[in-house]
């Protein structure tokens, strides 16, 4: 009933596949074990002592905050401008980067009637913008423009162009050609075809990625601020440098709470976008598209 | 049924609802764009862009650009002590000319060892001389500038006409004495005179002493000479074979610090790899427990969901700060910070993917009498594997970039080395070198991860 030759081949294939799986697991395990051993030997503090000290720092700053009593919330309130600065960095970077990403994504998608030689050029430049480390760009701009929030904003925006551009162009690849052809038959030019045939198809996905990117950018702005460019990060650096635990606690609390709020809001909005249009503004958006 | 004549007005009147709908959509679009515009205007003032443009120093970018691809030779004469004279690359004590018989002054510098009379050919017709404490600088198409020290002041005698903008003659902020003269007629030629020293710089294109330090016997050897040294020549250092000597000299180069930078790069990669692998391997089992389809106990799911949110919410910045305090500087710190944050991210992603899998495959395996582990292994894992691999690899690439930033916060690795060289801003060529290597590493990781992703995902879907 069973072709013995075929059976043999299948068994051999299966055996080889198992061998590969086993090899992969062994290699990963080796990397992890030797990596951690190596990392521990290169670290200035050891793992075991570190584990014991793990809660020391959180404890210290919480204790420092506790000592202040109700005044702590005044301190939190005083850092709101820094939070707004960080949010501004993230929002501006996401808006500007996102806008450029939309343009580049349209220019780098094969099925949207773009001049073909342009596509690899745009793709490459987006790759470079995406992979170029933000840290380096931020440090360079701080050197030229002076320490402010703008270097961090530009650095985050450049990365956003690359990252969103890639995702947007993947969305574009999947659009249906039929509306484009329909409009073309009616005599629409390229801009009109993109506006009325493509944009309505891609806008929900764009919005979803855009929200996700804003959330990521808030984190990135805070972290870049620490390296020397404004916002919560810069305040955090100062408070840690001066060893004022209550301020550090206040800043960390602000950062944590705002990230949580943005995270949850953006997750809710994204779910709603992917959902059945239950939200009132979604019905309006459907009309806009 | 179908209109034979196209009456726009009638058509629009018949579909008033649609018209309203479209108009409302149009208004929302315009309103949204206006809101963005208003916000950006606010951001312009909040960031104080106008002030920033006024204070920006684009010439610093030019300077940085020049300094990053060029090196300079300093000719320094100290005026406090007799015979304090030095010709050195980048003013480094380890790279001085005229100290060893085989390293005389360059041909364009004519001077006695005491530096009493110095004649410097700056190329292109530019010439500088030092006689005692009198410096002259001859600039083509301008004339000769004479600078001397008198009564505790640095005085200068310029040719007739307006003072060009490349000359700066600075006074002491309080005593109002002229204390510094600085002339830089071109980017590659500079003369500075203060009350205590005279310094002339001449720039040359290229990275100096990149392979071997100035004092090393290997300095300036051609590749052919090095090859001969490795193969046939006798040992330069009796303790080491020549090839090891060459590698060791290169590795320990004090100016370029190839060894230090390579170790720092390795640390950064280690952070990213360990952090991502740990996060993926810890995140997967937790994701099973957090997925509605695999865990019927609500409170545990709820707890794990909040744990993922908490790990993500704390954010890599805060985790790094906590771990730096606990574990000190090094790759372990960075790896753990990445692992903690991304266990939350990947756990959440995996659990969402697990809730969306197709249950039919699992049911099919179950109908053959498979137990729980067999069902999972053959009914679930094959479906989740592409997500697992592709997200894991994506995060590996992204974490390589994160690892450079965490390093700059103080965890070590290439980020810290970069921040330190930039802060001292002594030698921009070193900074550029580190930047190039970092960008190369990040881009290689990106290429590697997308290549692996393509290979593995295609292999998985193409397999019978």
TrEMBL record, chain A:
PANTHER family recorded = ABC TRANSPORT SYSTEM PERMEASE PROTEIN P69, PHOSPHONATES TRANSPORT SYSTEM PERMEASE PROTEIN
Q: Which coarse location class describes where this protein primarily resides?
A: membrane
List localization entries: Cell membrane
The species this protein belongs to is: Roseospirillum parvum
Q: Which SUPFAM superfamilies match?
A: MetI-like
Identify the GO cellular component terms for this protein. plasma membrane
The domain of life is: Bacteria
Keyword check for Membrane:
yes
Enumerate the CDD domains for this protein. Answer: TM_PBP2 (cd06261)
Query: Per the UniProt record, which residue ranges are transmembrane?
Result: 19-37, 87-107, 135-158, 248-269
Concerning Pfam families, the annotation shows: BPD_transp_1
Cleaved signal peptide residues: none
Q: Which family does it belong to?
A: Belongs to the binding-protein-dependent transport system permease family.
Q: Which GO terms describe its molecular function?
A: ABC-type phosphonate transporter activity
Tell me the protein's name: Phosphonate transport system permease protein
Automatic annotation (TrEMBL), chain B:
Q: Which organism is it from?
A: Roseospirillum parvum
Q: Which Pfam families match?
A: BPD_transp_1
- The protein's superkingdom reads Bacteria
The record gives the membrane topology as: Multi-pass membrane protein
**How is this protein named in the record?**
Phosphonate transport system permease protein
- Lineage, broadest ranks: Bacteria, Pseudomonadati, Pseudomonadota, Alphaproteobacteria, Rhodospirillales
| Boundaries of every ABC transmembrane type-1 domain copy | 265-449
Q: Which GO terms describe its cellular component?
A: plasma membrane
InterPro entries the record matches: MetI-like (IPR000515), MetI-like_sf (IPR035906), PhnE/PtxC (IPR005769)
């Amino acid at each position: 009933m069973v072709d013995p030759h075929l059976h043999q081949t299948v068994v051999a294939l299966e055996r080889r596949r198992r061998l590969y799986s086993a090899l992969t697991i062994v290699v990963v395990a080796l990397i992890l074990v030797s990596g951690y051993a190596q990392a521990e030997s290169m670290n200035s503090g050891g793992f075991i002592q570190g584990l014991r000290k793990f809660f020391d720092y959180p404890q210290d700053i919480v204790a420092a905050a506790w000592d202040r009593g109700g005044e702590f919330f005044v301190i939190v309130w005083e850092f709101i401008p820094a939070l707004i600065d960080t949010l501004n960095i993230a929002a501006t970077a996401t808006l500007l980067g996102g806008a450029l990403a939309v343009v580049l994504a349209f220019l780098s998608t094969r099925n949207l009637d773009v001049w073909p030689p342009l596509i690899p050029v745009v793709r490459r430049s987006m790759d470079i913008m995406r992979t170029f480390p933000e840290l380096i760009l931020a440090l360079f701009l701080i050197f030229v423009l002076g320490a402010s929030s703008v270097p961090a904003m530009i650095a985050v925006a450049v990365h956003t162009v690359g990252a969103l551009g890639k995702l947007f162009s993947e969305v574009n690849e999947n659009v249906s050609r039929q509306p484009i052809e329909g409009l073309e038959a009616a005599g629409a030019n390229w801009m009109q075809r993109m506006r009325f045939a493509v944009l309505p198809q891609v806008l929900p996905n764009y919005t979803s990625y855009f929200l996700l990117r804003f959330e990521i950018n808030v984190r990135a702005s805070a972290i870049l601020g620490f390296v020397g460019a404004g916002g919560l990060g810069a305040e955090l650096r100062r408070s840690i440098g001066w060893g004022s635990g209550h301020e550090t606690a206040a800043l960390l609390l602000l950062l944590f709470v705002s990230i949580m709020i943005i995270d949850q809001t953006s997750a809710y909005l994204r779910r709603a976008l992917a959902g059945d249009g239950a939200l009132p503004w979604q019905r309006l958006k459907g009309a806009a598209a | 049924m179908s209109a034979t004549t196209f009456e726009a007005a009638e058509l629009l009147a018949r579909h008033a609802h649609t018209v309203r709908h479209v108009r409302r959509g149009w208004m929302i679009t315009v309103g949204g764009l206006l809101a963005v515009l208003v916000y950006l205007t606010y951001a312009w003032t909040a960031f104080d862009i106008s002030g920033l443009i006024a204070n920006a120093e684009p010439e610093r970018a030019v300077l940085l650009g020049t300094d990053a691809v060029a090196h300079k030779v300093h000719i320094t004469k100290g005026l406090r002590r007799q015979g304090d004279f030095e010709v050195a690359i980048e003013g480094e004590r380890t790279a001085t000319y005229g100290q060893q018989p085989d390293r005389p002054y360059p041909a364009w510098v004519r001077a006695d060892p005491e530096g009493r009379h110095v004649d410097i050919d700056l190329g292109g017709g530019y010439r500088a001389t030092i006689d005692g404490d009198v410096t002259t600088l001859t600039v083509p198409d301008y004339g000769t500038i004479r600078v001397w020290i008198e009564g505790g002041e640095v005085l200068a005698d310029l040719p007739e006409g307006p003072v060009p903008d490349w000359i700066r003659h600075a006074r002491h902020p309080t005593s109002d004495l002229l204390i510094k003269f600085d002339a830089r007629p071109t980017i590659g030629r500079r003369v500075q005179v203060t009350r205590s020293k005279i310094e002339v710089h001449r720039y040359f294109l290229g990275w100096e002493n990149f392979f071997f330090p100035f004092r090393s016997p290997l300095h300036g050897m051609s590749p052919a000479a090095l090859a001969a040294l490795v193969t046939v020549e006798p040992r330069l250092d009796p303790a080491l074979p020549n090839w090891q000597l060459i590698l060791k000299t290169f590795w320990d180069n004090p100016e370029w610090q190839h060894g230090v930078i390579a170790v720092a790069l390795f640390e950064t990669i280690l952070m990213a790899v360990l952090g991502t692998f740990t996060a993926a391997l810890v995140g997967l089992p937790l994701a099973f427990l957090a997925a509605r389809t695999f865990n019927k106990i609500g409170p545990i799911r709820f707890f794990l969901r909040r744990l993922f949110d908490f790990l993500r919410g704390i954010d890599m910045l805060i985790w790094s700060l906590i771990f730096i305090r606990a574990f000190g500087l090094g790759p372990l710190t960075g790896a753990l910070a990445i692992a903690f944050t991304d266990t939350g991210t990947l756990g959440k992603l995996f659990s969402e993917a697990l809730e969306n899998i197709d249950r039919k495959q699992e049911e099919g395996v179950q109908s053959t009498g498979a137990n729980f582990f067999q069902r999972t292994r053959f009914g679930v894992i094959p479906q989740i594997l592409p997500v697992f691999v592709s997200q894991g690899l994506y995060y590996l690439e992204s974490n390589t970039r994160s690892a450079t930033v965490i390093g700059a916060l103080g965890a070590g690795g290439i980020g810290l080395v970069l921040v330190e060289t930039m802060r001292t801003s002594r030698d921009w060529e070193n900074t550029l070198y580190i930047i190039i290597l970092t960008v190369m590493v990040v881009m290689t990781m990106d290429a590697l991860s997308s290549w692996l992703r393509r290979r593995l995902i295609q292999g998985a879907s193409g397999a019978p």
